[in-house]
UniProtKB/TrEMBL annotation:
Residues 1-28 form the signal peptide. It holds the Pfam family Alginate_lyase2. GO terms for molecular function: lyase activity. Keywords: Lyase, Membrane, Signal, Transmembrane, Transmembrane helix. It comes from Candidatus Nomurabacteria bacterium GW2011_GWB1_35_20. The chain crosses the membrane at residues 444-466. Residues 258-410 form the F5/8 type C domain. InterPro entries: Alginate_lyase_2, ConA-like_dom_sf, FA58C, Galactose-bd-like_sf. This is Alginate lyase.
């Protein structure tokens, strides 16, 4: 009886430490959870969503914090590819009191989505970027608006499709054509930049605006989504149904606001013209490395020159700095860019104390956040720093761009050998820990078999000992 329970115990113990199919399935569920809500695709913190449902003249509006975990199929959901958000507005949808057309549309907010945004075109710089594709228009009146600057009373300037013509519309006046023969599903980018009493429109990453509207005014805000420009009275009999709609997929949308030209230059950043000693030779004209520390985050300055750096048709660029002395580096941060398809994807940092040393990697494949700071806290001693920014390889051979780079540290004096020893010991221990963790993760099944064999040997020895007794 004792032998029977011992063998059963061995089997249960072994099964308990072997990897299970159930845990793999749970991981797959966790990964797919990133496609549950639109707010998991891009940042909705300063938006509210208006839906084509609710009561007449009073459509449903979703604000923060509810918007962070909200979706409404099929009007406001993650698309099937899990890389965009679907906005759909049917011709028979509920409308606002000031319009006869329904919408599934974002409205700009401030203060973490609690207050309606309102800004003036002659104070500061106000930017909205949209990466989108129009995927459906109504059957009869095939019109839709997919991005706009609005003021307290009416739209100021919008991007409008009157299929197949995609164009800029200035409060009912036809502006320049963006695409005379737009096909549904075709992805494009548009950027609105308001400053100095003007609103500039950029299309598909154009360096120069495709249209400039001279407009001084306050009470403005941005909108993005599907604003269907048809209703039941405009459609033929039988087409007043929810299956007749306008729809757009938005892959990325962001808003940025900055103060007037007094640029906020970084204080005490070690990345500057004096410490830069080398860089890759693939920067485009007007996108030189010094733009990484000019204090500008918006992409263009007031004189319409760019304040970003990077290159066309490149997969990455790099820079090397000589700080002149040893510094204890405490922080490095990069402000990534998402100008159309010309984006930063990730970045890496290396360092060394002496020019003859080999480069040591501090971090690699760090996510370069789109139009946000990607910040790393550090504790390294270095004189030489190397930064590499990697772009979007989807667009062969790649496109790479970034806006700002800052490196912070304090000059290190009287470094004792003990400090170096501690650093070396720490690195060795960290390497051993990483190796052990990685080995266990990759060889858990083998380890389980070894333990089982050891236990079987112990059991055989014990059984032989009992027999001799």
């Amino acid at each position: 009886m004792l032998k029977k329970y011992f063998i059963l115990g061995l089997l249960f113990f072994t099964l308990g430490i072997l990897p299970s199919a159930q845990s793999t399935s749970a991981n797959a569920t966790t990964q797919s959870a990133g496609c549950t809500y639109p707010a998991q695709i891009f940042d909705f913190i300063n938006w509210k969503e208006t839906l084509p449902v609710g009561s007449l003249g009073n459509p449903t509006e979703i604000k923060q914090p509810a918007l962070a975990t909200y979706s409404y199929d099929p009007y406001f959901v993650v698309n099937s590819g899990c890389d965009g958000v679907q906005f759909r507005a049917p011709v028979n949808g509920v409308t606002t009191s000031g319009s006869s057309y329904s919408r599934s549309e974002l409205r700009e907010m401030t203060n973490n989505g609690t207050t309606n945004a309102s800004w003036a075109t002659d104070s500061g710089v106000h930017t909205m970027f949209i990466d989108e594709a129009i995927t459906a228009v109504p059957i009869t009146k095939r019109h839709i608006v997919v991005g706009q600057v609005h003021n307290s009373s009416d739209d100021v300037i919008v991007i409008r499709l009157e299929y197949p013509k995609l164009f800029v519309d200035i409060n009912g006046t036809t502006g320049p054509t963006l695409d005379a023969n737009y096909t549904l599903g075709k992805r494009f980018t548009v950027k609105f930049v308001a400053s100095n009493g003007q609103i500039n429109i950029y299309y598909n990453g154009s360096e120069n605006p495709v249209y400039t509207l001279n407009k001084i005014g306050s009470g403005n805000y941005f909108k993005a989504g599907a604003y269907t420009q048809s209703n039941c009275s405009k459609e033929l009999s039988g087409n007043c149904v929810s299956a007749n709609y306008g729809e757009v997929i938005i892959y990325n949308v962001w808003i940025a606001h900055s103060s007037p030209p007094s640029l906020s230059l970084p204080l005490n950043s070690l990345a500057n013209n004096n410490t830069l000693i080398a860089h890759s030779n693939n920067f485009s004209d007007g996108y030189d490395p010094s733009k990484l520390w000019d204090g500008c985050y918006e992409g263009t300055l007031y004189d319409s020159t760019t304040c970003t750096t990077g290159g066309r048709n490149i997969s990455s660029f790099w820079l090397e700095f000589d700080l002149g002395k040893l510094y204890t580096i405490s922080q490095a941060r990069l402000y990534g860019d998402a100008e159309g398809t010309w984006v930063s994807k990730s970045w890496k940092m290396s360092y060394k104390k002496n020019v003859t040393d080999n480069w040591k990697t501090v971090f690699s494949s760090e996510n370069a956040l789109f139009n946000k700071w990607s910040t790393r806290s550090l504790n390294i001693i270095a004189r030489h720093i190397r930064i590499e920014v990697l772009g979007n390889k989807k667009y062969s051979p790649g496109r790479t761009q970034a806006r700002e780079l800052e490196i912070y540290g304090i000059e290190t004096k009287n470094i004792q050998a003990q400090s170096d020893s501690k650093e070396i010991l720490g690195s060795v221990l960290e390497s051993v820990s990483d190796f052990t963790e990685g080995w266990l993760k990759n060889n858990l099944f083998i380890l389980s078999l070894i333990i089982l064999l050891i236990l079987l040997v112990i059991y055989i020895i014990w059984a032989l000992w009992l027999r001799k007794k």
